[in-house]
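Bench log, entry 3. Co-assembly request; chain sequences pasted below exactly as received.
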Amino acid sequence: MTVRVRFAPSPTGYLHIGAARSALFNWLYARKTGGKFLLRIEDTDLQRSTEESTRSIIEGLEWLGLDYDEELVFQSDHAPQHREAAYRLVEEGKAYRDFTPKEQRDDKDVKQDVAERARTQVDQRNNPFRNLPKEESDARAAAGEPFAIRLKVPPEGQTRFDDIVYGTQERSHAEIEDLVLLRSDGHPLYNLSVVIDDISMGITHVIRGQDHLTNTHKQVLLYEALGAPVPRFAHLPLILAPNKGKLSKRKHGEVVSLTTYRDRGFVPAAFRNFLALLGWSPPEGKEVLSKEELVEYFSLEGINRANAIFNFHENDPRRWTDDKALWMNAEYIRTMPLEELLPMVKTELRANKLWREEYDDDDSEWFRKTVDLIRERYFTLKDFSTQGRAYFSDDFDFDDAAVQKNLRKDPRLRELLNGLADKLETVEPFTAETSEAALRAFADEAGVKAGLLINGARTMLTGQAVGPSMFEIFDVLGRERSVQRLRSGIPW
RNA sequence: GGCGCAUUGGUGUAGUCGGCUAACACGCUGCCCUCUCAAGGCAGAGACCACGGGUUCGAGUCCCGUAUGCGCUACCA
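Structure output for the full assembly:
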């Protein structure tokens, strides 16, 4: 039996990182087992579903490198089949028409309302229409009286399934209400739609968030009523906010949206790697894993049961997302093959009008060397166009603290740096080694420490107090620009 | 309220059949390297394994209870 799994998001907004991780785990399992990874858009809530959201989900998956097999499925296309299935269950006596008028529910306090109602309601099986004679039910329906369709859950017994992550799950039927399958307006509801679609798509393993763990019993009941084989289930621990609450866009903003990571300079492989480590751990303990390695090591049995906290600091721009995610991204930026990084840097520079076509041909060697030089201390791709701006443009800003610390603190510096510029003009050839020799010699002649000139020069050439070795910067910037910047009056 | 699930340092996790002086990664501190910042190397702080009982020669690991958190309990998904 070939494995068939699916990712089934509802297109009601951006792609949440928790959903992205579900997608990743499904994808990993499919690739690991040689199975199929399918994508189904659960757009049954037509008011809230948007095409834009669908597009962003597909883009997000693409960005993460999760390719799906077969045709994209839209759940709304199957509404007729869902309805038909519900009617069939009524015919077979496994479901019944409920003519109770629809209750108006305030959308705001549903949670509270639901809990409140559940508290007072004792018998789940007291619906007067549950055992209405078939003739009467048919007659009322034929007369046009509106009705919802509910599953007839047996009053006795229990359902049971073996979750691959959470183990054996049992739930007494008494705890399960006669769930509504079809609304009185004919709209099929979530539990029905999911089950029918999973059956028709031939899903063998349902891998999804733990928030569906208790729903699963209802779905098992439905599989049984429909006479279909029950798939295997694997529920994933949830990803929580630092206060252990739900991670939501409304409360936590853009950190929860996958696109944020793309837009803020994450390397897809790095974020994928980070996401994989949330709730799952590789057997060997090695954490930096390529796509191929993730596939190789992945197993559903390795998934943890406790919810994970996604740690970020809302008021700290430097640590705007999880520390480990940031570290992972930096790790990828400095260690990944340069050839793979270059196009990403190109995209970043282009978006900020720092890209020059020469970097692709005449100056490609220079571009490689420069990126390789500066990548070591960057955390995101964004850093190439911000902190790295001085390498790609003469129009860059000076950091106030750097100017203060490396230039203004010594009044001789302005003159010294001009002198250094003169000296560098005569150096032949102009390399890291020769410029270093020249600078040190110049420092000796002037009777100052080399460090004074080095740090001053770094700030003159890059606007910053930190960065790569000064002599590597001379080399990369070249004699002309180095000299010109040393003489620049801008920071003074 | 009912039912379910979870609970190992700040965070992510490892801890097979009970022997742990509790391991790894991120973060944090210090030192080395050094022209700065990183990276790298080294060292270190930080967990009475939620709490209380029990079983056992011995429990993070098994059992019971409590607490806390999360989830479900909708004609939402």
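Residues 274 and 325 of chain A are 6 Å apart (CA to CA). The longest helix of chain A spans residues 470-487.
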